Structures are given as structure tokens and as C-alpha cells.
Amino acid sequence: MNHGWLILNKPEGMSSTRAGGPLKRLFSQKKIGHAGTLDPFASGVLPLALGEATKTMPYLMNRPKSYRFTLKFGSQTSTDDTEGEVIATSVIKPRLEDLKIALPLFTGVITQTPSVYSAIKINGKAAYARARAGETIEMPKRQVKIYDLSLEDYRGDMATFSVHCGTGTYVRSLGRDIAIHLGTVGHLVMLQRICVGPFKLENAISLENILEMRDTSLVRVLLPIGSVLDDIPAVSVSLQEAVKIQHGQMVEVPHNTVTRISAWCDNKLIALGHVTDNLFYPDRVFNI
């Protein structure tokens, strides 16, 4: 079994599950972890965790993400993208000056109402499933963090933006709300994820290129398990200490002010754990 992170450049028109299907067979995996799925409409960075890398997924899920998206003014859809039915129209096209003035209002901590076609669970069932079943749903508002929002291009009825945002942000809702603020309506015609934590689009690999690789080349496209742990302090342990840790035993470490830490032996990730009174207690052990 292979262990590591595979950074896929998911194409538009394919679900994350469908994209991972042939990769499970190719890398001989029973399952592959998706760190932030992309629905068929969206494209771009899809980090996939193979083998023991699935144990580090929580350390990526809450990392900031970046997107590019194109908002078309004049019509709003039920899904806030091209896959839904038109539910409202407007002849108003915002001025470039008004668009630029509006962007700072959508930066920082903002309140969003996600689309009813999102994957948010409502009483244990995904909102989109309830919506498609004809149920009337009142989506809960949520606060999200927008670190940066900038305009890349504007051509009268369409504007392309880049956004760097915190976890839980719905970019479709962001586009919808920008249009409404400008006195019109709109929906996304393009959505591309260009960054998830340390993983960037320029380093992602297309599904087509992966499927064309020889077996001996596959392991070269995998990034180390510890790629998502760059903000967690690390400590080096001896081989004897590594064996104790892998058996769930504590070992003494020099860090007494750090609670969360990773343990390494010969550049190999051994465990993630916590420190109390200079003693390292393993919480997750890696068997590679």
C-alpha cells in the first residue's frame, strides 16, 4: 500500500468520488480520503490522502483555501451556479467603480447564508438532498473569514475574482451576495480552487497524466505524509524511542511548553501526540 498525499487537479464535470475511483485501483487503496471535496461544477486542487496519510487529514481540513471564480450578472439560479434553474433576472449591470467599492465590504468576518443545494446537514440529512426532494429549507446563517478578495477582470456582465478564505466559506454564496449588494443578481459560471493549505494548483497533477504513468513512476507523485504538518513543532527521537512510541508508550522530550507535537525518526513520521511535563504521549501512530 502507498502512503502520502496526492494533489489532483480535478477537472470540471466530474465529482470528487468519481475522480478518486480509478486512483484507488491504481494505487491499490481500499479507500482514499478527500480533504475538502469539490462537486462536479468546480475544478482545481483536490488533496487526496492515501494510506497512513488519512490520519493527518484533520490538520488540513481547517486550513485556508483560495479560489478563482467568475460571476455572471443578470440571472440568479437555484444553485448559484450553472447547474440550477434561473429563479430571478435583472437588466442591471454594475459599474466597475461600484464593484471595486463593494469588495472591502466582503472582506474580514462576514455572515453568509449557504445555498439550499449545499452539503450542510439539516437534521442529519444533506440540504441538497432535502431541496431536491421538494422540501422547504431554512438555511442557518454562518460567519466565515475572508482574508483577501480581489477583482481580476471585469467585462460588463461578467467579473472574475480571486479569494483567499477560511474553512466553511461558500464561494457561490459570496458571488450571489456581491451581486445582490450591487442591486442586481448573478450566479457563478466558473469556480476553480487554486490552493488548499500548502497545496497549490501549479503542483497539482491531472487525472489524465496520472493514469498514463507507469507503475514505477506512481510513487514519485506522492507527497510525504508530513506535508500538512508544517505548522506543528517536531521532535527527533531515537530508534529505541520510536519503537516505544509505536507501542503506545510515552517518551521524554525536551519540549515542555508545546502541547501538540510530531515525533520523527530518521526523517520518518512516527506519531502525533501531546506533551505534558516533558513527556510525549502518542495520540496517532503511523505504521509505515
SSE layout and pairing:
Blueprint: E1 4-10, H1 16-26, E2 32-34, E3 43-50, H2 58-61, E4 65-73, E5 75-77, E6 86-89, H3 96-102, E7 108-112, E8 121-122, E9 125-126, H4 127-132, E10 142-154, E11 158-165, H5 171-181, E12 186-196, E13 199-200, E14 205-206, H6 207-211, H7 215-218, E15 234-236, H8 239-246, E16 251-252, E17 260-265, E18 268-276, E19 279-285
Parallel strand pairs: 1-14, 3-12, 15-17
Antiparallel strand pairs: 1-3, 2-3, 4-11, 4-12, 5-6, 7-10, 8-9, 10-11, 12-13, 16-19, 17-18, 18-19
Task: Give structural notes.
The protein is an alpha+beta fold and 288 residues long. It folds into three domains: 4-63 and 198-227, Pseudouridine synthase, CATH 3.30.2350; 65-196, Pseudouridine synthase, CATH 3.30.2350.10; 232-285, PUA domain (Archaeosine Trna-guanine Transglycosylase, Chain: A, domain 4), CATH 2.30.130.10. Helices cover 19% and strands 37% of the residues. A hairpin with an 8-residue loop joins strand 5 (75-77) and strand 6.
Number of strands: 19
Rg over alpha carbons: 22 Å
Termini separation: 9 Å
* Overall mean confidence score, pLDDT: 91
| CATH fold annotation of the largest domain | Pseudouridine synthase
Q: Spans with pLDDT under 50 lasting ≥5 residues?
A: none
* CATH homologous superfamily (4th level) name of the largest domain: Pseudouridine synthase
Number of helices: 8
Biggest sheet architecture: 10 strands, mixed
CATH class membership of the largest domain: Alpha Beta
- Beta-strand share of residues: 35-45%
Helix content: 10-25%
Q: Sum up the overall morphology in one term.
A: elongated
SSE series = EHEEHEEEHEEEHEEHEEEHHEHEEEE
CATH architecture of the largest domain: 2-Layer Sandwich
Please indicate the count of domains.
3
Q: How would you classify the helix and strand content by structural class?
A: alpha+beta
